[in-house]
Amino acid sequence: MAPTIKEIAKLAGVSIATVSRALANDPKVIASTKSKIDEIARKINYQPNLLARNFVKGTSNLIGLILPHLYDEFYSDIIKGVEKYAQSNGYYTLVTSSSDEDSLSDSIANFTSGGLSAGFIIMLTSENDEIVEQLRHSHTPLVVISDKSLSREFNSITINNYEASYKLCKYVFSKKKYSSVKYISGPKSNIDSQMRRDGFKDACREFSMPIKKKDIIEGDFTFESGEKICKEFFYEEKIPELILTGNDMMALGCIKVINKNKLKLGEEIFIAGIDGIILGQMISPRLTTMKIQTELIGTNAVKMLLEQMKNNNHKHRNSNVVTELLKGNTI
Amino acid sequence: MAPTIKEIAKLAGVSIATVSRALANDPKVIASTKSKIDEIARKINYQPNLLARNFVKGTSNLIGLILPHLYDEFYSDIIKGVEKYAQSNGYYTLVTSSSDEDSLSDSIANFTSGGLSAGFIIMLTSENDEIVEQLRHSHTPLVVISDKSLSREFNSITINNYEASYKLCKYVFSKKKYSSVKYISGPKSNIDSQMRRDGFKDACREFSMPIKKKDIIEGDFTFESGEKICKEFFYEEKIPELILTGNDMMALGCIKVINKNKLKLGEEIFIAGIDGIILGQMISPRLTTMKIQTELIGTNAVKMLLEQMKNNNHKHRNSNVVTELLKGNTI
DNA sequence: TTGTAAGCGTTATCAG
DNA sequence: CTGATAACGCTTACAA
User: Fold this and answer.
1) Helix orientation angle between A16-23 and A31-43, rounded to the nearest 10 degrees
2) Cβ neighbourhood burial of B27 (10 Å; 0-12, 13-18, 19+)
3) Which of B8, B67, B76, B102 to mutate to test binding with chain A, by most A CBs within 10 Å of its CB?
4) What's the pLDDT band for B313 if we cut at 50, 70, 90?
């Protein structure tokens, strides 16, 4: 059996209360007793039972992180940001991805009423009223990473996808006049994807760029979907002069096809993505894109969460993640 | 306050023991009482307090995952594998990265004697006797991902880096005779790095490939270090005909330099990596490399861990992760 | 089939 | 400054 404070108490000839206090650095404990207790604890290799401690304190040293997927550099950067900052504040990170709505709901339940986590961060990428309702009833501190629409109800980190996309498109369109444009969007149900597409559309309007319905094709954010859709451009129709995509991964898929077809990127054909993943910056020519400071999202989320846990104040803060134009050579 | 079994008991007019049993699907509870209890639980939105449950059971529903870093696709794939499999078995994943030895040791202490995790997976990439000693004293089920050397003491997942590197080199050397070779290794202190380098050396010997000390340059596994070291090849000396690297990332760094210098990859200059990260397969020409099934490492580790937790048997198993040659066009 | 009650390891309150 | 003890919510013998 692992040693407990009871044993220390016996060995030190004091009560468990004193041991508990000594180990918690309670100044009321006299130095001589404290050092005796510390010494014994060290000798028998005492390790506090965190389950007991968490239980009695009614909270834990864990921060939950609920993500839609674990695929992609994007998400792992968030994990990285969260873990780093959480650890430096004495918390562990509980990662989970919600494959379906039931497991999402379960995770939330376990993290909140279940008491598993002291607070949690949840990223939402699709409209889901039931989940939002569930979050409303949560008495556990939480931070939502999502679209703007939830920022008044919860502490939140928002990524202004609309603006990022709009700005990028403006930059692209101002560089030259393109004879034809195709847009490969992310999944229709994904809010981020919708916002990015809307940013594109509005920029088109502003630059009097005529866009037809069939010029916007739905992908699923993966490399493969970009590749597949781009192949069809080369098979069926006139090859577009400009391709814009809902994320970098799909842009990279396109680039593979373009390279195979020996078209010169940035000269004969142009492309831009959005996200700013390193991959896009490692290839040559570098991908023109809008960088989203993903790791910062994680860090900021924890920062906000910890603050909420400390102050327990009920006004909702919102932090907007900065995006930055990366001028590559594909435009 | 969150509802407890006490409240359910009061509402149902039974004892808390009965409630506890009913909710745990104890067959001894008669159907009528069970359904009444279930009904009430649902109505008042009862959620078991996991902290209490874990505490009383003396174990938790968490699986710890201790990684050396969270950088790199490599690690995030492991997280993905672990999380997926753990979740489907009712466990949550507690990720942590050990920036320094103290925090590593703390995490282990918390996961084991602290009781935080029901079991844990730890990846070790550098020799560290104190940590190994600490692991020996652990009474918590654990799986080590590491070099072969620990496989007799612990349940372990080993990546046969030596063999992977050796096989790759054999393939490379058998394709053609190269006039000059450079090897960019990972950090000297990293065991995986050492094994890969040794595999390379032995393959050289077998193919009577003369290698001098200065032909092996130490990098740090990053894209940047590959880039930097490769640049020096172009500045100072005769450009090598073949470059082999300790991982894909560094190979990609080299490729950037090679492309800049307009040398034709796979024709004028040859390169191969090791890891099999997607990046290497997205570029053109595709990188010749040895794929390590990273996600599988995570999955297998959990599988092994859960088995150990169930059977509580003390013989140590070892699972070797399969590697696969990816014939790209850079060789 | 159900109830009573002990107990898990810790913290925190109240007395001394 | 220290000790005795209740309390946290749940599980699980043991009794009924």
Assistant:
1) 90
2) exposed
3) B76
4) low
- Closest C-alpha among B140, B70, B77, B92 to residue B298: B77
Closest CA to A148 of A316, A293, A308: A316
Closest by CA position to A228, among listed A238, A217, A237: A217
pLDDT in tens, B261-282: 989 999 999 999 999 988 898 8
DSSP H helix total and E strand total for chain B: 13, 12
Pairing relation of β-strands B155-159 and A119-123? unpaired
| pLDDT above 70 (res B293) | yes
Spatial contact of A65 and A95, defined as CB atoms under 8 Å apart: yes
Alpha carbon distance A80, B71 (integer Å): 7
Of all nucleotides, the one whose C1′ comes closest to residue B15's CA is C3
**Residue B151 DSSP code:** T
Residue among A74, A69, A70 nearest A278 (CA): A74
DSSP characters for A231-274? HHHHHHSPPPSEEEESSHHHHHHHHHHHHHTT--BTTTBEEE-S
C-alpha distances in Å from residue B133, one per residue of B104, B130, B144, B153: 13, 5, 13, 11
The tokens for B112 are 């084991």
Each residue of A5-58: pLDDT tens digit? 999 999 999 999 999 999 999 888 898 889 999 999 999 999 999 999 999 999
Q: Which residues touch strand D (CB under 7 A)?
A: A 13-18, 21, 27-30, 32-33, 55-56, 58; B 1, 4-6, 16-17, 20-21, 23-24, 48-49, 52-53, 55-57
